Amino acid sequence: MIGNAREFLGAQVDNSSLVFFRFCYGFLIAAETFGATLTGWVDRTLVQPKFTFSFIGLEWLQPLPGDGMYYYFIAMGICGLFIMAGLFYRVSTVIFFLLWTGVYLMQKAEYNNHYYLLVLLSGVMIFMPAHRSRSLDVRLGLVKESKTCLNACIWFFIIQVGIVYVFASLNKMHIDWMMARPIGVWFGYKSDYWLIGPLLAKEWFQFVIAWGGIIYDGSIVFLLLNQRTRKLGFYLSVIFNLFNSAVFQIGIFPYLMIAFTVFFYPPAEIRKKLFKDNAKIEGHRGSISKPLFYVLAVYFVIQLILPIRHHFYKGDVHWSEEGHRMAWQMMLRAKAGYVRFDVVDKETGERKRINMTQYLSRKQRGSTAGEPDMIWQFAQRLRKEYEKEGKDISVFAISRLSLNGHEMQPLIDPEVDLASVPWDRWGHSDWILTYDSYD
């Protein structure tokens, strides 16, 4: 069985799908990074805040000072254009991967699933021979032209997008989503949208979107894989993703998911329709090496484990956020609430309430209210700040949170000194209170 899989993945096939995806991928990451600068995202998220909430253990990873982050994003945008043109492809993909991964790890207040997806894609694109055809690298003689690639290059993307969609569907099988509660909260703020606003406010339409999302995510890959239903799958992909783009404004993610459909079509059809090239490319049999096969196997096993790890934590992942990231939990919860921090001087017993506006931006304050790990990180920052003044303090968080429009409940145990508890990387943190029930 492994031998057959290695032969299947090792066959040389027409690389037109991979080359066209390179165009789309390069253009989209350039649009994402240049757009982040022009729309003020970089300024709001990375320049104005006094510090950012990086992944725990990487607190040293902070934005560059001054105008550094503008140049940082411009450099990523230039890499995107170079990737699209196939110019200095390997160097450009490596630089973009390092820079984008840095942005992903240095801030969590603006977490988005497509940020994580771009980390994965930018890493794998380093090894993809997407510049071997229709590229400036070929024209300049920097690489030898090739019209074929390993079948593994095509199927890597099919399997990856399949994992994204299938887990997105499974994660939606939650009572709140099936009752359209988070959608009702979001659409309630969008009823003034031009043309579609009144429709978004209709309860029946919210149920259509909720259940349509489950069905679409669970079936789209299979529709695209089947030749008879491929055209239907493509049209559904365009409609579904353009709707998400218009309503939710989630950056390049919808367009990236449309671009992925290119891998489900026969490469010869892509060559003929998109490149206007009727040349017949002859592939040949082959076999990928055992080390490469096992590397791919381990990668996808990890991709299957990460989305289910939250089942090993106590409580609801939408409430505690434990195991939420890197798990394709696609916009499944709407949170509203607040968190306050009290600092107690252990020597004098003096209690002081922290003015959050002196430390955090508006977006950071909103994100922190619903993210226990960010609450813990802020407590640790306060502890370190007071330590510099020679004070030993306790930090207590008083919080209340509404999940998907349900009644507010306390999120954090107000009696626990967050300055003194270590972060449990592999288990449930007991100071995160359990969500009682869904009313």
Describe the overall structure.
- The protein is mainly alpha-helical.
- It has two domains: 2-312, no CATH class; 334-439, no CATH class.
- It is 53% helix and 7% strand.
- It has 19 helices and five strands.
- The strands form two sheets. Strands 4-3-5 form a three-stranded antiparallel sheet, with helices on one face. It has a two-stranded antiparallel ribbon with strand order 1-2.
- A hairpin with a 5-residue loop joins β3 and β4.
- α4 packs antiparallel against α5, α8 packs parallel to α16 and α18 (362-370) crosses α19.
- The radius of gyration is 24 Å and the shape is globular.
- The mean pLDDT is 93.
Give the arrangement of secondary structure elements:
Elements: H1 2-10, E1 12-14, H2 16-38, H3 41-47, H4 68-85, H5 89-106, H6 113-125, H7 136-139, E2 148-150, H8 151-171, H9 175-178, H10 181-188, H11 197-200, H12 203-225, H13 230-248, H14 253-259, H15 267-274, H16 290-305, H17 317-320, E3 335-345, E4 351-353, H18 362-370, H19 372-388, E5 393-403
Antiparallel strand pairs: 1-2, 3-4, 3-5
Structural class comes to mainly alpha
3D shape: globular
Radius of gyration: 24 Å
Question: What fraction, in percent, of the residue positions are helical?
Answer: 40-55%
How many angstroms does the end-to-end distance come to? 50 Å
* Strand order within the widest beta sheet: 4-3-5
User: Quick one: how many beta strands?
Assistant: 5
Q: What is the number of domains?
A: 2
- Total helices: the number is 19
Q: Largest beta sheet, briefly?
A: 3 strands, antiparallel
**Mean pLDDT, nearest integer?**
93
Low-confidence stretches: none
What's the SSE pattern? HEHHHHHHEHHHHHHHHHHEEHHE
Q: How much strand content do the residues show?
A: 5-15%
